[in-house]
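The methods section describes the discrete structure representation at length, but only in general terms. What matters is that the chain and its backbone geometry are given together, residue for residue. Nothing conveys this as quickly as seeing an actual entry. For illustration, here is how one protein appears when written out as sequence plus structure tokens:
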Amino acid sequence: MFFGYRTFKTAVGAGISLFIAQWLELDFFVSAAIITVLCITVTKKGSVNKSWELFLASCVGLLFAAVIFETLGYHPLSLTVFLLLFIPVLQKIKALKGIITSIVIVSHLYTGGEVTAGVLFNEFLLIVIGVTVGLIMNVYMPSVDEHLYQDQLNLEEKFSRIWKEYARYLRDQRIDWDGREITQAGNIIDDGKSKALRSIENHFLRHDNYFYRYFDVRERQFAIIERILPFVSTLDTVEEGKHMANFMEGLSSAVHPGNTASYYLKELYELKETFAERPLPETRAEFEARASLFYILHELEQYLLIKEMFKPDHDRTLTLKRKKRAYIRKRKEKANEKGRREEE
């Protein structure tokens, strides 16, 4: 399919509004379709808010136009006066997004050259039809939860790989890693937060911000991962670095929503004590290496403290574990299929 669900809803909604307005033999019936198009947004809350602004602005615009046109006449100066008075009022009542719809409706009065009860009722019906159909079309919003779970799994995979590469460098001074997981992780976090906000805006009664909190936590942790990269990449092989590598290796296997931070915090404090008991550095290079290691330890502590504050509910954790198993199984099946094709 070359068009999305929003395009489909917009097209169908515009057609329905046009049909109803034309069936009722309303003047300027095409305007009902225009209002419907303007009411359809990417979220339910956004649709309700915008529909209310369009409805309010259009009704207020009708009243303003009726008074001004009947008082000053139907000429360009009247329209200028209308806009000079009307726009500040829209700003005051926080309905400025409805200005386009209002001008469309007001233009009907200007074109007709008179304001009667029938004209006002015709315009009111156009507004009601357009807004109502727009709201109805926005009742259905596809869930993004599956995409969010997938982003969560992908992000944890990237985090795990980053920690393994940091550990590999500290232990073996390997420099063959291109660091692409860092860029990918940043993109996943940005995309995940955007989807999570959209998911929140699509629920009126369920105040579930789990995914937004999750990606917010990962964003703060990711900032730490980026900060320690220059310190990790400039460290020469030292005994303390190998201990740090072992710690990061363990950390790489614990990148998941479960609360393992307390265990690793305890291990980190023990590592700090071990480093503190070692003899003082004798050369400048040893001093700089020790300073870098303690800075990395400090940042790792912040990384774990951020994680400790995140408390996922039990159901979410079970769901993610189930999806993670399915994800791993699917990847293995793809790898096996690829292997069979290569053999053939």
